[in-house]
Every structure is written in C-alpha cells, then in structure tokens.
Amino acid sequence: MFLLVLMILCIRFQKLTLSGSLAAAIVGISVYLAANWKGVLLLLVFFLLSVIATAHKKHRKATVHDALVESKGRTLGQVFANGGMAAVSCLISLWDPLHIELYLVMMAASLASALSDTLSSELGIVYGRRFYNIITFKKDQRGLDGVISLEGTIIGAGGSLLVGIAFAGLNTTAFVVGLAGLFGNLIDSFLGALLERRGIIGNNFVNFLNTLCAALFAMVLYVLIIT
C-alpha cells in the first residue's frame, strides 16, 4: 500500500513517469524482500535527495542544460539505471541467504553511488567554481560529460557517506559503503569523459555501470576489511 501511494504521488507531481513508477515499484519490492524497511529507507533517502537536488536552482542550471526544465519525471530506463543494481543485489541475496550481509552492503553501495553521482552533478553545476576534465585534469566546460569540480565531488562524497550511515550507523561498514559510492561516482565521470561524450554509450548505461562498479568495489572492501 505504501509503495502504491508513493507511485501515485510521484506520477501526480511528475517526479516519475508511469513506466518509471512501475520500475520503481519493482526495485522497491525487491529491496524490501531482502532488506525490509531499512532498504526502503535507503531508497527514500536516494529518491528524496535526488528530487531536491534536481529541483534546486533549476532555472539557473537550465542555462547549462535546457533539458533540465523539460523533464517530465524519471523514466523506466533512468530508474533501473540508478536502482537496478540494488534490486539485483537483493534478489541474489534471496537466492544465497548465507551471504546476505555482503549483498546488502553491495545494495547500499550501489545506491550510495547513484546518490553521489546525482548530488555532485546537480549541485556541482551550481556551486562549483572550477571545472576539470577527469581524464586530462585540464579546465573544461561546466556541465559536460566527465567534467568535475572539487565542490561537486565533496558534495557527492557527503551524500554517499550519508547512505552508508543510514544503512549501518557510524561504523566501518558505513565507511565501506561511502567509499564505494564515491568510487562509483568517479567511475561515472570517467566513463562520461571517455565514452558518453563521444556518443559510444548513453547516460543510463553509464549510470548503471557506476552502480555496478560501486557494488563490486564494496564487495572487495567487505572481504578485505570486514570479514
């Protein structure tokens, strides 16, 4: 019932398209089955902060990207790009419950990466002062794929750590999730500069790859540090 009400509200206020809301429901149910309400809380943290960041100074950001003003809500592809890895991790945990803690850390890391990317992109455009190509570290145009700022990166790191704390509290696991999320965010920028800017892959695929990389990096850190 909670997910149904949330879907209706998101469609009503154009935060999600109809297909996007259905995709969000699939992700939400998958996460709930494995992580219960803690997982749903992480999804809400990601979604609410993403919506706030996207809406923040929207018309100012429109001078960089006109598409920001025209958005009718997140689509099916965008939802799965950001939340698909979290759903996959949770579904695998149901198949292999003996390692559920590992899979849930991977789930949290993927959401941390998605939030880190969104916050650094949406708020970095507004508050960044100097912008650099992540590959060459030469000054580059604000808003282009693969362009980062110190301010945006710090904001993204904060969002990633917030997800880690919401997932595990103030402990080593939260640090693992936060660090993996930041890693995924940087991978997103790298892929943006290397492949997306050249039209080789699209933004949704880049977003999915950054969450996948974050989940895999969290798995490595979990094995090395926690177990």
Task: Explain what you see.
By secondary structure, this protein is mostly helical. It has one domain. Helix content is 76%, strand content 2%. The protein contains 9 helices and 2 strands; from the N terminus they run ααααααββααα. The protein has a two-stranded antiparallel ribbon with strand order 1-2. The chain is globular. Residues 66-70 have low confidence and may be disordered.
Radius of gyration: 17 Å
Global outline? globular
In percent, how helical is the residue content? over 70%
Helix count equals 9
Order of helices and strands: HHHHHHEEHHH
Quantity of strands, as a count: 2
- How would you sum up the major sheet? 2 strands, antiparallel
Overall structural class, as computed from helix and strand content, comes to mainly alpha
- Tally of structural domains: 1
Strand % is under 5%
Order of neighbouring strands in the sheet with most strands? 1-2
Mean pLDDT: 88
Distance between the termini: 37 Å
Element layout with pairings:
Elements: H1 2-12, H2 18-55, H3 58-61, H4 67-70, H5 76-95, H6 100-127, E1 132-133, E2 147-148, H7 150-168, H8 172-196, H9 203-226
Helix pairs in contact: 1-2, 2-5, 2-6, 5-6, 5-9, 6-7, 6-8, 6-9, 7-8, 8-9
Summarize the structure.
With 227 residues, the chain is mostly helical.
Key attributes of the depicted protein:
globular, single chain, 227 residues
